[in-house]
Specification:
The complex is a heterodimer. Chain A is mainly β. Chain A has helices at 8-16, 69-72; strands at 21-25, 31-32, 47-51, 55-64, 82-89, 94-99, 115-128, 134-146. Chain A folds into two domains: 8-51, no CATH class; 55-146, no CATH class. In chain A, the strands form two sheets. Chain A has a five-stranded mixed barrel. Chain A has a three-stranded antiparallel β-sheet with strand order 2-1-3. Chain B has one domain (8-133, 245-421): 3-Layer(aba) Sandwich (Peroxisomal Thiolase, Chain A, domain 1), CATH 3.40.47. By secondary structure, chain B is α/β, with parallel strands linked by helices. The chains are: A mainly beta, B alpha/beta.
């Protein structure tokens, strides 16, 4: 499907194309997300790219009031918390991410086990070039919303 | 599974008073660097030695636990520097980094060195200076212990990761926020009795201080702890008082052989079990997010080596970086069955002089959590408890024979467990 190397950068590049891509081991069939050069199950190196369906179940969550500087920059704060959780995807792999579309101020309303799906969010990131010049570049962020 | 080729004796311990010695302090005399704190820990260690031994002659190597002096203080290459300050140059000195279990890992390397016969006498210590950064700087530096590619960019923080472990335990085992609060109350009750604690105050003391300053009025600690102003939410269900402290501190221990131990003391403490485990850095990659596989593995290895079972332990320092972590820790070690740790806390079973005293030092919650020094600080406490030397009312009335230290890195990516015996 693609000749891209099985690297972190390729995973990020695919995300920027709004594709959630993992690796499937041609030896044992195991799927790794993010993709891996070495299969996490049989430790052979026969990967092929596979697009992952971003639907699954919320496994754990929290609403974060004191956030990371990255999230603070997006406007979240003590009064405006964001939900962060782990998600078990139907394809058997897991991710962590920002859970949107829930009532962060009423965590009791957020249910472990609820169906969620990946949402690609257009944004920007700060990038400092080799000469130290700071600039912005587009970046697609991975998040989840209730299915 | 590992085994000890020869006996390892713990003959002296020392620590500085854990605290906030920030460069932002208004009193210059309260500003201390990691170098200053390390030397204070050394003086405390010397003071605890029963007999005069020439440390500079006897000690053959230094194992130093430190998470991130590079980011916290712009100082790398810390081990030779700390070795120099206590007269160990040109002997070997090495720094070990395993996030919050850097100290526990440095202790384990010291045990390995002595047990294997590689060295006869070593110092295992730890140091961390955290308070010179802004709160955001500290949060981001600590986040370096999480998965920087797949967790942090999506909003993870350390309280946030443990909060996920908490909601998983609430759902799976019925852990309650009241049980979490009781961990904090107990640890502050203990910490009040520890002259080396950063925050030697009970939660009630904190509440009364706030009342005196006119910040509010609460009928009891429960109302105080439920107040969003007095005890703000950090990451649901963890509030400010579910989180350990940002701390500067240093601690060190001397490990030696059975033969050499006599030079120091007639009553050494024996390291009879050392276990360690690892796991995925990212929480979401683990099949079970309620418990820590690294800790379970470390416990298995340590108990097997010590030929003991969890029921044989009479005092334990466990890694309470967040209140939920203490409940999970007790269950991972096997002190209580899965899902029963929270109830044990609620029934008071883990209080001082109760069935199973946990974190008699005040834990990371009250004594403080200077990352690289925390694991060594735990050893200091259990050493004192086993020798009947804990200060004042903190000393357990029935002096325990066997104790355990449980130190965790990150959200459970690594863990060490040590079993000590008098």
């Amino acid at each position: 499907m693609s000749e891209k190397p099985y690297t972190v950068q390729s995973y990020v590049d695919f995300l920027n194309e709004k594709k959630l891509m993992g690796s499937k081991c041609k030896e044992c069939g195991n799927i790794d997300l993010p993709p891996r050069l070495v299969c996490s199950k049989c430790f052979k190196s026969k990967p092929e790219w596979v697009e992952i369906d971003g639907k699954g179940k919320l496994a754990t969550f929290t609403t974060i009031h004191i956030g990371s500087s990255l999230m603070n920059a997006k406007g979240y704060s003590q009064e405006k918390p964001y939900c962060f959780g782990t998600v078990d995807l139907d394809s058997g792999v897991s991710l962590a991410g920002h859970i949107k579309g829930v009532n962060e101020l009423d965590p009791d309303s957020i249910q472990i086990g609820m169906r969620v799906k990946v949402e690609f969010e257009d944004g920007t990131e700060i990038f400092i070039d080799r000469k130290g010049k700071e600039g912005e570049r587009p970046k697609v962020f991975l998040s989840f919303v209730p299915e | 599974m590992g085994k000890l080729a020869r006996e390892v004796a713990l003959v002296s311990v020392g620590m500085c008073k854990f605290g906030n010695y920030s460069k932002y302090s208004r009193s210059p005399e309260n500003i201390k660097s990691s170098r200053d704190l390390w030397m204070e820990a050394y003086l405390d260690l010397v003071e605890h030695m029963e007999r005069t031994v020439n440390i500079q002659e006897e000690v053959e190597a230094l194992f130093l636990g430190n998470f991130s002096s590079d980011l916290f203080e712009q100082q790398g290459h810390l081990a030779p520097l700390m070795a120099e300050l206590i007269g160990l140059n040109p002997k070997p000195a090495m720094r070990v980094e395993n996030a919050c279990v850097s100290g526990g890992t440095a202790f384990r390397l010291g045990v390995l060195a002595v047990a294997s016969g590689f060295y006869d006498t070593v110092i295992s210590g730890g140091v961390e200076k955290m308070t010179d950064l802004t709160t955001a700087g500290v949060t981001d530096t600590l986040a370096a212990a999480a998965d920087g590619v797949y967790e942090y960019p999506y909003g993870a923080t350390f309280p946030g990761l443990y909060a996920n472990i908490a909601t998983a335990n609430m759902k799976e085992y019925g852990v309650t926020t009241r049980q979490l609060k009781m961990v904090a109350i107990k640890n502050h009750n203990n910490g009040k009795l520890n002259p080396k604690a950063q925050m030697p105050l009970t939660i009630e003391d904190m509440m009364n201080k706030n009342i005196q300053k006119g910040r509010g009025n609460w009928k009891d600690v429960w109302e105080f702890l439920d107040d969003n102003k007095a005890n703000p939410m950090i990451a649901y269900p963890l509030r400010l008082n579910d989180c350990s402290l940002v701390t500067d501190g240093a601690a060190m221990t001397i490990l030696t052989t059975k033969e050499n131990a006599k030079k120091y003391t007639d009553t050494p403490i024996w390291v009879i079990g050392s276990g360690q485990g690892s796991d995925t850095l990212a929480l979401h990659d683990r099949p079970d997010r309620t418990h820590l596989r690294a800790a379970q593995h470390a416990a298995k290895e340590a108990f097997q080596m010590a030929k003991l079972e969890p029921k044989d332990i009479q005092v334990a320092e466990v890694h309470d970086c967040f209140t939920i972590a203490e409940i999970v820790a007790m269950e991972d070690i096997g002190i209580f069955k899965l899902g029963e740790g929270g109830k044990a806390v609620e029934e008071g079973l883990t209080e001082l002089n109760s069935q199973m005293p946990i974190n008699t030092s005040g834990g990371l919650k009250s004594k403080g959590h200077p990352i690289g020094a925390s694991g060594i600080g735990q050893i200091v406490e259990v050493f004192k408890q086993l020798r009947g030397e804990a200060e004042g009312a903190r000393q357990l009335k029935d002096i325990p024979e066997r104790g355990l230290c449980h130190n965790v890195g990150g959200s459970g990516g690594s863990c060490t467990i040590h079993i000590l015996k008098r």
